[in-house]
Structures are given as structure tokens and as C-alpha cells.
Amino acid sequence: MQDKGSLLEKNKVKAVYQQVEERITHYREFAEYPDENRIEEECSRCMDCGTPFCHSLGCPLGSLIPEINSAVARGDWKDAFLRLSARNNFPEITGRLCPALCEASCSLSISGSPVSFRNVEYRIVEKAFSENWIKPLPPETENGIKAAVIGSGPAGLAAAQQLRRKGFSVTVFEKEKQPGGLLRYGIPSFKLEKWIIDRRIEILEKEGIVFETEVNVGEDISPAYLRRSFDVILMTQGSSVPRDVNALGRGLENICFAMDYLSGISKSLSGEDDGEKLISAEGKKVLVIGGGDTGSDCVGSAVRQGADSIWQYEIMDEPAEWNDASNPAWPYWPVIKRVSTSHEEGGVRDWGVEVYQFSGRDIAVEKAWCRRIEWYSDFSRDGSPVRKYRTVPGSEFQLDVDLVIISAGFLHVEQSRLLNSLKVKYDRKGNIKTDGKGRTSAENIYAAGDSSTGPSLVARAMNSGRIAAESVIADFGV
Amino acid sequence: MEHKTLYRKSYEHDNCGVGFIADINNIQSHEIITKGLIILEKLEHRGASAGAEKVGDGAGIMSAIPHELFSEYALSSSINLPSRGSYGVGMFFLPSGKEHIKNIKYDIEASVSAEGGELLFWRDVPVDPSVLSETARKSMPVIKQLFVSFGKLKGEALEKKLYMLRRKIEKKITPQFPIDQFYIPSFSSFSIVYKGLFVAPQVSKFYSDLNNPLFKSAFAVVHQRYSTNTFPSWPLAQPFRYVAHNGEINTIHGNVDRMKAREKSILTTAARPDSSFSEEEFCRAVMPVINEDLSDSGCFDNVYELLVHSGRSPEHSIMMMVPEPFSPEYHISQDRRAFYQYHAALMEPWDGPAALVFTYGNKIGATLDRNGLRPARWCITRDNLMVLASEAGVIEIDEEDIREKGRLSPGRMIIADLDKKRILSDNEIKAVISRQKPYRKWFNENLLELKNLFQPPESSIIEEVDISYLTDMFGYTDEDLKVTLKTMAETAQEPVISMGNDTPLAVLSEKPQLMYNYFKQHFAQVTNPPIDPLRERIVMSLMGFIGREHNLLTETPEHCRQIKLDHPVLTNDDIRKLIEIEIEGQRTEVLKAFFYPSEDNGIQLENAVRKLCEKAENLIDNGTTFVVLSDKNPEPGQVPVPPLLAVSAVHNYLSRQRKRHLAGLVVETGEAREVFHFATLLNLGASAVNPYLAFELINYLKNRGMIDPSVKTDIAFENYINAVKKGLLKIMSKMGISTIRSFRGGGILEAVGLSEELIKKYFPSVVSRINGIGINDIAETAVERYKKAESGRGDENRFFVNSGNLHYRRGGEKHLMSPEAIVLLQRAVRENDYSLYKKYAEEIEKNSGSLNTIRSLFRFRKGIPVHLDEVEPVSSIVKRFVSSAMSMGSLSREAHYTLASGMNRLGGMSNSGEGGEDEDRYRISEDGSDYRSHVKQIASGRFGVTSSYLVNADELQIKIAQGAKPGEGGQLPGYKVNSIIARIRCSTPGVTLISPPPHHDIYSIEDLSQLIYDLRNGNPSARISVKLVSEAGVGTVAAGVAKAGADMILISGHDGGTGAAPVSSVKYAGLPWELGLAETQQTLVRNNLRGSVRIQVDGQLRTGRDIAVAALLGGEEFGFGTVSLVCIGCIMMRKCHDNGCPVGVATQDPELRKRFRGKPEHIINYMMFTAMHLREIMASLGYRTLDEMTGRCESLETDTDNIAVSRKNLDFSAILAPSDGEFKNPVRFISSPANECRDELESRMIKALRGNIEKKAEGNFSADIRNINRSIGARLSSVISVMYGSEGLPEKTLNALFRGTAGQSFGAFLAPGICLKVEGEVNDYPGKGLSGGIISVYPSSRAGYSAGRNVIAGNAVLYGATSGKAFFSGIAGERFCVRNSGATAVVEGIGDHGCEYMTGGTAVVLGRTGNNFAAGMSGGIAYVLDRDQLFDTRCNLEMVNIEPVIMMRDRDELEKLIREHVEMTGSETGKGILEMWDEMWPLFVKVVPFEYGSIMKDVWEEEEKRYEYAR
Question: Which residues lie below 8 Å from residue B1455, measured CB to CB, with a gap of 6+?
């Protein structure tokens, strides 16, 4: 730890973004991350807490943040990299995408500006790539156990790597053309360029992981065959059933789910769209329903496609403004009004709005019927407090729209033939039920990531994959 | 031996009062006896008696054989008694029962005739049992005297014969009876001992011989015992046969063990023909030398008598056993230094506080330990009577008749030689002894030093791959490297951490543990003082000899042919030189300490250890003088034997074979890295340690830039060694041990969680009470590490994993206060949500239940539940809650006020901590808040402890130790001392404030009793509590504290918090409160003391469940430290020591303080929740009140379902043993005994002056005073402080004049307006806590001696004084003005450690000072008259400058003070100086602390300008 006073008062480093006018002309990443010197300085702000909340409560992966900061602060990037890799399989992903719960729980953020660990992470891993520290680490000995990983999102990839390093023979099945899952198809390129995923996949392949793409397990190969061919199966296919909007006229055209919208763009950029028609917002009046990160991604994408106007409605109340660097909800993630880079690029946001009807003269949507709602506190039957809402009488209004993108989150895993025939049980929310450590109700079948936890963050998915892999390793006595 | 409870007899301590009187002319008279008995009575207050019944802990008198008395007896019984000196008298304590006595007599008679003696007769000693207490009477032995002669044998020859005879009798009979039934108090032709279980006045009533005018002696040695126990023990009363001891031998275990080992060499002495028997016969007869049933003093007596009977003179023997310090800082002759060095190779010091009176024949001498921790004052009359005692004034002697007065200085000796009819001074005695043989020549010619063993140096470089292999093998973690090694190598200090330790005990942890972690350090509390290893470094020594020891009973030049080590840490070069040693007679052999893993690793390890032991013995038999146990360079498949196990096993095996002293035992290991590792290795048997891997790793860190580049590699090594040295000194000092020689092999540790079998076999000297893991687990852990190392070979991507031992890490070591718990608790108290509290409690219990605490392994036994409504309400429960002591200084003002206000609103109490309190807080504030700390702490620094501070408390708490760092002092760095803190601590902003490790007025239990007495007088309505820290034996200490009159005893767990403490203290000292509390409860109940004292407990208390467990184990009140801070915002940042608390709780930084968000409600909510939680548990167990619940440990049982209990073989039955089973004594507080603190003299004074106080009118009082009038002035001051606050009365409103010798603590806490004068002298602690009053002490005008050379005041004068003045026309003892922070004092000479830790005020010394002046002095000024120009050699220059007195302001100030001194005392010395002022002032020097000087510079310069202007 360095001198208190002055360093406490310093604000965290930030990435610098290209000007809006410039960045909306392309789909490339537009963040310029702080350089090594600046990051070393940033790391020296770390107070090396006796109880580091960033590492313990914040980061889902339990990243060894204090030690990493201290290594970077003294210029030992290699040590920092080794420590970063110890808990995080793909820091190049989290370094770009993670909302950084660690920063919210940084002790500095109780009354000041936290250490910006996401930037630290980014810089370490990119340095590691440029210094060629990141090498495939195939196992020295094979243990002969065959593992199938279903789905190649962050949970599946992390689990696959963990298992492979312990000598499992690992096959990752992906129904799309290329591995990566949501990382590749759900997240816009301007936030995560796809070569980053390719770079990692290449390493994983060199470590000996086999990728079977364009295989929809359960359809293209039978569950029984899968069972026979593998000693252990890990389900990481994600939570892909989207939450729909319960509104009249939902059947009209030009109303789509965010994931279809976003993946279409991704596929078209990579040329794997196979002539599928791209949903385009060009020249359109766009309504994005849902105020979350995916909604924001849709806004950014629509801006780039040249939308005429963009509205983003959120059903929850408008969060409070909070312009201080500190975190009012420390050490938790604060519910505050955030402006994403996409929001900077365009669109109008509104909160406490419910869309209850769509209408159109033709088959295409033309109007969204909306009304305002208000939230109040109540108690559920078991006496626990719940939030409920009621509509505000007379608040109805209509919005002219050409394209509606529903970005209201996901419900649960797709309860496919595969899962059903393997007799995997589901939890109350409809996700795969596990013991919390990845073990499902079916023997030698494990689950991780959104498919068992419900939709969540990349870091949580990776951690979930790691935990499931640990369980496999323990159960097989490796 | 089976132990049902935690109590052990071996924990008992005793401290006392001691004295002697001797007629130097050797005229035997009965008057000597009478006077001896008077001395005894005047020392009565230094002894203890339990309860209303006057049991007493023992008293006795030793004198010459009263030949007239026995002649008359013989005559009247028509028996022939030989002439004076040609017969011996044995005093016998015998069992009752005629048959026993008959048998014993028969055996004795047989022994006498077998030795060729003649049994003259038996005499029944006339006694009067009716004067005894019930208890003493019940245990009274039959007392008889045996008279024997050996023909014409006389003098020493007879004495030696009697010694042999006694040993033979003892060997025959002792095994048949416990020591309480058969014991020989004395058996000599010189002296006789009458002793028993008395309080002083009972001695002569019981033994009517002592009243018989025919009972004549030229000397009498008396002793009043104060023991922590109340179990009757007649034999343990003192004097022993030759020695009477006031104090405690801290190193007793090691001394006894080593003595045993030496017996073999003593026996192998070639037989030398003697007139009556061979040396060998003598040696055989006296083995074993030590009777281990005796107290430490008794064991000392055993060895002393062996030494004198085998030919050394008494003074020589004492100089061997209790050497004075002889490092180069001491001004002693080369011959004397060589004498001590030579003897250091023969015997280690018997270390600890000691005032020893020893006799042999017609020599009666006394000596003090090197630290001078017990007082001894003497005076010699014109008619050649010498009186020496723990206090001055024990016998009334007219001032006119006194020829000389003095005191023993540390390490000094004085002897009354009745044959030569004169006094032998220290210099004379020691000059003669140290030149009786050419010790210097012997030493210089034979000494070996490593640096002289020339070998070309070469560096050993371990490959990086090996580094990673070895670090895995020896279990290194990230924290070991980056915290421990790095800090040590960079700063030469152990790392400092803050907050408490909330990780599990080693045995409860699921992480692999090094063996050291199972051990806990002992530390001194109450019965002996810890030492300050920094400021009093001068008395400590790490120098030791290793090699082959020779026969203790002879002296040859070869005796010191050993290697002298300045410290026990060997560098990699050193050990190689040692291994390659090529000197005749010296040989080193290396024993590889490894085992091979197999099916049964436990057996493998055990076999390996056995082989090590046998090989070591073999080597020694074949002449090896250094055995190196090494785990260097393992071959494939080899697993290192944990070095601690190896060294302790070999050490104990060799000790049992009586061969340990024949070789040095050196450990070469990759495992040792932390200070505590070295300490345990040395304490369990190693002579020296080479941590080869630690050095390699420092090199590794250095190469990777992880060590500050400005620290060069060789400096880094040196720093590391220095850090270990400092740490060792600290650990030794905590036990009050000064030298490594007595620390080595001492076994002063407690094991927690090792199996009985393992302990018995390998660590026999170590206490262990809850059983635990055995050799298998230890072997498995070692093999696991080995496997990890093997599997990690060649892995380039490995890094050192942070184990989360100090700082929390996910997946690392568990912490009770997990991040989740912190967040839940803060939310619960902020949102006032009990359901969140319950979640917090669940989280804590989950953490605890996953093996974080002992209490988590208990479960409640089902009771008959009661309805919750029937249970004592929350409002009454919370009154038993206190927030633990945390000072303003460690906490921010905001945090401190919030805690106090919250606790006060609740009706609980908050504790001021050490550091005074702002007077504003004594009144209710304008917003109605009460910020007064109802508990005021009295700690060793005495900061802000004034009369007004005392009267504004409901409880006064004496902090003996602190859980996080028991036995250590503290330091508030200058940058934290802002103006507010400086004001309330009565010091100067910016000046560092040091709290000494010991209270300088508590070196023993009778001192504590005195401080309690002082405080009771300082505030007669407050209750007095004493804070102790859990360790083995805390129960017996608590018993002593209860006997000292405390109202409440606080038992703190080892895991308590701190603002800053070294890692080794936080992690390895003290025990969990479960053990300490249970032991205290059991011991107090057993001694029937529990009903009169309350017990409070603290240490990581978190939830209602913790409170329930604590209550059932005997706690009545409960303290919350860390958790209350978390309530008001603490996030366990563990940065208190940096002033960098980011939430404004533990910082003084104004910016950070702004971030404080705590509110009194947060504390209140937490306490309420905890009480609610507790009530629920009470209801479920069926307890309606806490009173009902206290001490009912039958409601607890071991949670046998917890797998760890069986897996780790834990046994908590001793903790859960019902304490009242066999005793039927109260198990909780019932009522306070009447605490008599009303000194009749003080009462008279208050009565006479009360009117004047009320009217603020001048008043006078005069009276005679004796040493039994103690704390005079304290109660009068409390009256004034209550009425007038700290302002008091105008100067000299009340004047009192006393004639005679004032008792201890004269003028304690004296308030402004009072002026006390004594014509005569004062004892220890005058002006303690002086708060504005004036004291003046001067000799009677009729005195026949010169005042300037006369000792007029005892030790620790003006300890903790904050303001006021004191004048002493004479010399004062050790530690004059210790911790003075504002008083002005003038004195004419002082002892060692003058002005120690002074932070303010002015001291003027018109004469010589002792050594180590100004140690730790950070503020204030001292003017010293430096006549011999040697002052700078006696001054500790670490923190001060010595300047000439050139400034006019200084000269003026000095002159004025001397003038005032003359006015107040009539001092001749002062007058003389003033008469020749112009010649005298240049001889003065001004001692100015650096820090203080730079802060005051401007003020002084300003003043100086005014002087210049005036001129």
C-alpha cells in the first residue's frame, strides 16, 4: 500500500473511447485502454485490504485481486499474469466485458473511487499475449476419461479447459458454426471483436480440446449415443428461452427477440449468415423493450445500422442519479442510473413504462401501445417483502414503431429432448437442478453456467464452469 | 498424571516480602530474633491471606542454631549436648500417626548410624496450634528436631556430612510420603529454620521457642510468602534451608532440566579421597539434586546448597546462578566480565525477578537479579546492626543511630560477614571471587568463535527449480515471502499487523500446518514482569556457548572450551564452518533428518526420530561435540522430519540419558523462517539454528526486485538476522527472561491440539490440555507437502499461493469475521433488522462451526425449556455488556465517542482504553449524550491517569496484558499524537508515546495488591478490575488477583484486537478464552474465591451463542471489541497500524476521520440483538437468569457429532469439568468481601483537613509515619478531585508533615493544593500518578549520615506523574521519573533507568545516575550534574541528545529549581551548588529528546530572546 491521503483521493483510470461520430461508423472495438504505466500507478492505489471484498464478495471468480495489484504495482507483470490466470480462464473476455463487481466492492469505493481492476485485467492479459506468455498447456498425461461439454459459451469453455488440464479427453459440442456461444453471437463486435475468441479457441484446440461445431446434440446425435461415448457430460448450453412480452398484437412482424437481432448482425459480419435475412434497423423507428445490458447492445447496434430513431423502455422505476465515484450500496452492485457507451450514441430511454399492445395496419408492427406504471411494496404469502406494480390510470400513450426488439431477459434453459431423455431434473425456475457444485440429478451429468443458474454474467458463468469441473475432477478421483 | 480440570499445581506462583537483620559484631542475642519478627510483621501487607480466615501463605524465620536454648533443653532432659557448632540440628515436618513416626524415626536412626554419626536425641518442638487458622491446623505436620553429631567434625566438614545424611534420609523416606507430610526444613550445624503456614504475627505465637530469651542468634532471615494458591503447604513456606527469595524464577523448567542432565558428569568425576568419604559417594548421595515438588525458590535452594557443599563459596555460587549483566555497556572490570563469561559456559542464569537472601555459616548476603525487579533497602546502625528488607522502615531505628542507608542496585550483592565482623561490598566480593582463579586467561585461551574458524567463503546458490521444490516441501506461502521474509529483510523487524487473530487454532484448521503452529508462547503477567527488549536491551543477552559442558562441580580451563555465539542464528557460511571444524577435541557430525514415505508414515517418522536420537547419543559417546540435525539436500524420496519434532526428541532423549550437555545441538533447516519458529526450536532444545532456505529465499526475492533495491543483499541478510534477534528478545522478554542461555531448552510453551502421547514422548516439558493429533497426522502433513513438491517439479507457471493466514482469501485459511459476516452485521445494525442479525449469527456460527473456535465444538445439553417471557429481559442482560478497551489514539475521536455514547444509553459500559479522557466528557453534553467512559483503564503507560480521571470512573481497570500482544508494551507514534490526544494524555503533540511492557509498579502479585490499594484510595467508590490474558496458569494468577482484592477479573482471549502488534505476538501468544475462562473458574471455585469476585470475558465474542457458552463456563460479564467496531463501520481492513483506516474508525487522519459513518444506535442495536439471541438460548436451556446460568458447564458437552473431534482426537473434558464437584463452593459472584483500604493515618488527616478543603482555606497536619501507612494522600486527593475537578486547590493550601518512613505509594495521585513533607524516608512508588500536588522528602536534621549519599526513596518514583513537584534530598532507586509526563522533580542521585519513557516534565539530578538513563524518553527535560564527566556513558542515547546548559532560560530554570529544592528540603547538596553557582552550572548537562527538542525549539528560542532583551 502506498501513501493514503492523496491516492485515496485519486479517481480510477478509465478507458478512453473514440468520439461517438467516429465509432458509430464501424463495428470494431472503440475503447483505448490505459497504458502500462498508468495501470501500474492505478494498482498502487490498492490498499491491500485485510478483508478484500473485491476478491471475496465482488468477483464471482474470486480473482486474486490484491496480489495481482501488488505484482503490477511493482512491475512484475508475469507474476500478475500467473495469478490472474489462476482463477480466470479468459481474462481477455472479462477484461473487456465484465461489469466489474470487484470495483463496486472495492473498499476505496465506500467513499471514493475504486481501483479499476477491469482495466488492470485487460492490460495484464493483453501484455501476456504480446509477450507470448499464454501458451497451450496440454496435460502431461491423459487420464483416459472422456468428457463431453455441451455448449461453448464461457461456462463450457472454462470447464473444458479445466478438465483438459487434468488429462480428460474433452469434446465440446456447439450447434452454431463456430464456438463461443453468447460471446460470439450475443455480444456485439464493438464490445468484443471475434478474433479475440478465435485466438483463445486456437489455444484450447492446441491443448487438445476437440470442438464439434454445428452439432445439435440430442438432434444430430442421440442422447443415448452421447451417453455411450462419454464418461461424463457437462451441460453448458445456456439459458436460451427468452422472456416474451405479454401484449396484444405480439404476432405482428418486425417484432423480434434481441438475441435473434444481435446474432444476426454477428453472423452477417462474420459471413456465416448463409443468406439468412438480416434484421435491419436502418431508417427505422426502433423500440427496444428492456433496459438492461442486452437492450443497450441493441441500441448500439441499431445506431450503427442507421436507425431513424430509437426508444428504449424499461419496466422498472428510473434509478436514482449517482454521479459520485463511490458506491452507495457498497459492497453490492448499486442500482443507479448508468449510461452505457451505446446510450451515449443515441436513443431515448424511459422507465416505468409497460408495452401492453402492438398494432399495425398490415402484418408489420406500426404502433406500440404503452402506459406508465408505479411500483409499491407488498408482502408475499410467506410474509417476505415483494415489489409489485400497478398501472397509472390515464397514462396511456402510443409510439410509432417499425421495429420492436424484445430484450426482456431469459427464462431458463431450453428443456430439450437431450435433457429430458437424460432424465435431468429442473429447478423451480426451469433450469437444470444441481447441488450448487454442478452435480445434476443424473449420474455423471453435470451442468454449469446459465443453463443451471439462470441468466447471469460472463464471470459467473466461467466460475460455474470451473466449479462443475472441480466436481468432476473430485468425483472421478483425478 | 490424570488431570480432570485445567488446573495444575505447577502453575502456582509465589511472591513475597523478605528481609534479614544481622549483628555485624557477631554477638548473639535474643533481641535479633525479636527484631526479626517485627520486620516480618511489618512486611505482612506484602503477604496474602485468603478470606476472613487468617490462613496466610506461609512465613518463617531462619537463625543461627540457638545453642543456649538447646543446651538448657539438654540439661533439663539430662542429655549431653556437644559444644556449640559440633552438632547438627534437623528440623523435621513429619506425618501424624504414631506408626508413621516410629517407622520414620527408625529409618532415620539407621541412616545416621550408617553414615557413622551419633543420634543424640529427638526434641518435640513446642508449638501452639490454637493460634492457627482452621486450614493451617488441619494440615499441620508433627514438628520435631533431631540432634546428631559426627565425632569431632565441625564447620564445613560437618555441614557437608549433614547434607549427605539429609539427602540419604530424604531418598529413603520422601518416596513414601507427599511433601506436605514429610519435609526437612533445615538440617545444619549453622542455622535453623522455623516456618509454617502463617501470617506474620502467628510465627512467634506458634513457636514458643522464638519467645525464649535463650533463643539467641547473631542474625535472622525472615520471609512472608504471598502465593497464588490457598492450598495449605507448610514446606513451601520460606526461608528454605539456605535461601529466602522474593520473586520468581521464570526459567525454572529449563534450569531444572539442565541440572538433571548435568548429574551424569557430576557423577563421573574421579573419586577424590576425603577425610570421611569419597567425592563419588558424595555425588551419589546428593542425586537427584532437585526435589521437583518444591517451588522455584526451593529448587534454587537445592542447587545453591550443592554448589556450596561442593566447595564454592556462597557468593561464588550466587554469582554463577544469578549473574549480573556483563555486556560491554557495563562498567565492570575485565576480570569480572571474564568470570561471568567463563561461568556462562558452565551454567545458565536462573532468571527472573529476585531479591535473594542467602546464608552459609556466618555469612548472610543478599543480591538482586540483573534487572533489579525486587526492592531491597538496607541500613546499618552505629552499633553495627544491619537490616535489609523489601521495604525501608521495617524496624524503628532512630535517625541519629543510623550510620549508612542504601539499597541494592540491579545485579549487586552485599554480605554481612559475621566472622570478619564487617560488611562486604559488591565490588570487594566480586573482585575477590573473579580473581580467585585466572578466569580471564582461561577464557581467552580456550574460547572458540566461529569467525575465527577460517574457511574461504563461497556462496551456495540453489537453482530456481529447487527453490520451488523446497518451498513446497517446507510449505512456504505467499505471505511467508512477501510479508514475513520481505519485511524482515527490508526493515530488520518482524511484520506488524492489526486487529485480532480470527483464524482457527492449528489443530482446528483444515490447512496443512507447520508444527510450530501447535505451540503458544507463555508470557509474564502479574507474578513477574515482562522486560522491555528495546529500551532495556542492556540487561538482555543472546550470547551463548555451545559445545561440550564439563563437570559443574569442578573448574578447569577446558570448561569454557566451547563455541561462543553472539546470537543463535547461523548463516549458511557459519554452519559450514562449524561442520568443517578442525580443532582438537571438537568434532561436528551431521545427522540427516529425513524419512521415507510408506504405507504407515507415522511409524516411518517415529522410527526416523528414534534413530536420530540413538545416533546422536552414539556420536556423543564417541566424542562428537556438535550434532547438526539437517534437512538440507534431500535425496529423491526423502521427506524431512519436522525439525521441531527432531530437535525436541533428540534434546529430551539426550537429557534423559544425562548427555544433553555434552554436545551442542544445531538445527540446519529449510523450514524455519518466522521469529516464532526460531523461538520454539531454541526453547525446545536447539542450541543454534541455521535457516538455510530463508537466506536463499531472501536472495531470490532480491533477484526478482521484490526487496527494496536500496537494501543490498548482505544487508538484507543482516536485517533478517536482526529481525530474528529482536523477535527472540521480544519473546524472551515477554516471559521476563533476559538471556538466551536460560531460554534455550526451557520448554516454556503450551501445546494446543497435540496428543498426550506425542507430548509425553517428544515434548515432555510442554503443557497440553486438550489432547489432539498424533505422529500420524504430522507425518501425513509432511508427506503431503512432499507430494505437492514432487508434483510441482518443473512447473513454470507456479506462483506462491496466498494462504490467507493474515489477510482473508477465498479458499484460504478461514476467518471468523468473514466478508459476508461483516456486511450482514453492518446492514443489520444500520437497518435495525433482527432477521439480518440472525443471518449474521448464522454466518458466524457457520464459520465458527467449520472449526474456527473451540466453542463451536461444544453443544448445549438439552434442558427443560422455559417460556421466553420468563427469561431476564434484554434491558437487564445488556447491562452486563461492555465495549472492550480501545484508546482514543488507536480509535478516532468520532469512533470513541460513538462507542461510549451508545454503551451508556444502553446501560452497559464503555472502556476508556489507555490514554486518558477529556474532562468535557465527564459531564452530560448539551445534546444529552453521555460520552464518559464508565470504565477507566490504568495501563502501563499511565497516560492521563490523574486523580480526577480516577474519581470520574465507575470501574478502574488495571490492564495487565492485552490479548493480541500479551507481555508487550505499545507505542503511539508521534504523528498520531495530535493536540487533542496530547492534551488528554498529558503530553506534547508530535511526541511519541511509549507504553512499557510491564507496569513499573507491578513486578509481582504483592505489587498488584498495592496498586489495587492505591486505586481504591484514589476512588473509594469505584470497583477495581484486573485484565488478564488466557494462558496456562491464568487461573492461579487470577486466584492471586482475587486475593489481592480485585472486584472483577477480565479474562481476555489471545485473539483480541490491537492497533498494531508483531505477527508472532498476535498469532502465537496466549490461548482462546474458553481455556482461560474455564481454568480461572475452576481454580477460583477450588480455592473458594469465586464468590467474592466477578469474571468478565472477551475475545472474538460475536453472537448470543458465544455469550451463552461464556456464561456457562463461568463468565458473568462480556466484552466486545472488534465486533463493536464493525458495527460502527470497520471493514477489517487491518490497517490500523498505518493510520490508514478508510472508514475513519482507527485513524487520526482528519480526512479519513470525515469518512466515519457510525452512530450510537448501531452499537445499541447490536447489543440488543445479541441479548435477544442469548435470551432465546437461555429459554431453550431452561435458564431464567444469567445468574442461574453462570458456571453451569454441565449444560455444555463436546459435540461428538463433529467429525473433527474424533478425527483430531480432541478432548475437552478438562474445560467442561464441573468446577464445584468436590468443593461445594460458590460458582458465581455472591458478595464482595469488605475491602479494607482505610488507612487510619489518612483518615485522621482527612478529618483534620476536611473543613479547610470545603473553605479552600490553608490547613496543616502533622504526624508520625511508618512503612505500613501506604498510599498516603490518595484518598485526600480523591476528596478534592470530586469537589474541584482537575483544577484542585491553590498551591500549598493543605500542608502535612510526617516523620519517619512512609509506606509505598506515598503521595499517590496527589491533587493540586496538597503539599506533603516527610522527614525521614519513603519507600517505593512515591508520587505515583502525581496530579499537581507537591512532595518533599528530606532526612531528619538529627540524622548522622550525609544526605547526598543516603538512599531516601525507593524505586519508580513519580511513575506516571502528570503534574506537580517532588523534591528528594537524597538518592532514589531505579526508574526515577519513569513515565513522568509533566511533574518537576529534584533529586540528589538515582539508580538505573532514570527518566525512562518520560514524555514531559523536568527532572533535575544533582548527583550520579545509574545506567540506561533516558531510555525511551521522548519528551521533557532532564538536567544532570555530571561531575565525573561520565554521564554520557550511562545515558541511553537512542532517543536523546546531551547538551550543555548554555541557554539563559535553561540556566535560570535550573537555578530556580535548585533554589526551590533547598527551600523545600534544606538540602546541603543544593546549597553547596548554589554557593558556587558559576563554577557549578557548567558541570550540568541538559538531556533533550530529539523529537521533543525539535518541537520545543521555537518556544525556547522565543523565551531566550526575552532573556536577551531583559539583559
Answer: B1474, B1477, B1481
Q: Hey, how many other C-beta atoms are within 10 angstroms of the C-beta on A397?
A: 10
Please report, for residues A30, A285, B601, the alpha-carbon distance to residue A9 in angstroms, rounded to integers and kept in the order given: 28, 44, 56
| Residue A57 contacts B, CB cutoff 8 Å | yes
A403-455 pLDDT, tens digit per residue, is 999 999 999 999 999 999 999 999 999 999 999 999 999 999 999 999 999 99
- Pairing state between β B1048-1052 and B1419-1425: unpaired
Q: Cα separation of B1241 and B1265, whole Å? A: 8
Q: Decide: B1503 and B1449 in contact? Cβ < 8 Å.
A: yes
Which cell numbers hold the place of A453?
443458474
H or E segment at A358? strand A353-359
In 3-state terms, what secondary structure has residue B480? helix
Element holding B1120 (H helix, E strand): strand B1117-1120
**Is residue B323 within 8 Å of residue B344, measured between CB atoms?**
yes
Kindly report the pTM of this predicted structure: 0.93
Tell me the residue ranges of DSSP E strands in B1138-1200. 1196-1198
Chain A, 112-171: which have a CB under 8 Å from a chain B CB? 137
DSSP, collapsed to helix, strand or coil, labels residue B393 as: coil
Q: Which amino acid is at B650?
A: V
User: CA-CA distance, B165 to B88, in Å (whole number)?
Assistant: 11
Nine-digit cell at A345? Answer: 450514441
Smallest CA-to-CA distance from B337 within B415, B452, B425, B430 is with B430
The complex scores an ipTM of 0.92
Alpha-carbon gap, residue A58 to A53, rounded angstroms: 6
Q: How do beta strands B1419-1425 and B1399-1405 pair?
A: parallel
Nearest-CA distance B1140 → chain A (Å): 6
Considering the candidates B16, B283, B379, B986, report the single residue annotated as catalytic. B16
Percentage of residues in chain B having pLDDT higher than 70: 96
A60 touches chain B (CB under 8 A): no
- State whether A53 and B704 contact (CB < 8 Å): no
Cα–Cα nearest to B985, from B1418, B1356, B1324: B1418
User: According to the 3-state scheme, what is the secondary structure of B289-352?
Assistant: CCCCCCCHHHHHHHHHHHHHHCCCCHHHHHHHHCCCCCCCCCCCCHHHHHHHHHHHCCCCCCCC
Is B16 considered catalytic here?
A: yes
Residues 6+ apart with CB under 8 A from B22: B32, B218, B219, B220, B364, B385, B386, B416, B418
Measured CA to CA, the distance from residue B1002 to residue B497 in angstroms comes to: 28
Of A47, A76, A111, the CB nearest to B1135: A47
Note whether A149 and A195 are within 8 A (CB). no
Phi and psi at residue B811, in whole multiples of 5°? 80, -5
For residue B1398, report the phi and psi dihedrals to the nearest 5 degrees: -70, 140
Query: Would you give per-residue pLDDT tens digits along chain A (478 residues)?
Result: 344 444 556 778 888 899 999 999 999 999 999 999 999 999 999 999 999 999 999 999 999 999 999 999 999 999 999 999 999 999 999 999 999 999 999 999 998 899 999 999 999 999 999 999 999 999 989 999 999 999 999 999 999 999 999 999 999 999 999 999 999 999 999 999 999 999 999 999 999 999 999 999 999 999 999 999 999 999 999 999 999 999 999 999 999 999 999 999 999 998 887 777 889 999 999 999 999 999 999 999 999 999 999 999 999 999 999 988 899 999 999 999 999 999 999 999 999 999 999 999 889 999 999 999 999 999 888 888 889 999 999 999 999 999 999 999 999 999 999 999 999 999 999 999 999 999 999 999 999 999 999 999 999 999 999 999 999 999 998 8
CB contact under 8 A, B1134 and A49: yes
Question: Left (φ > 0), alpha (ψ -120 to 50) or beta: where does A404 sit?
Answer: beta
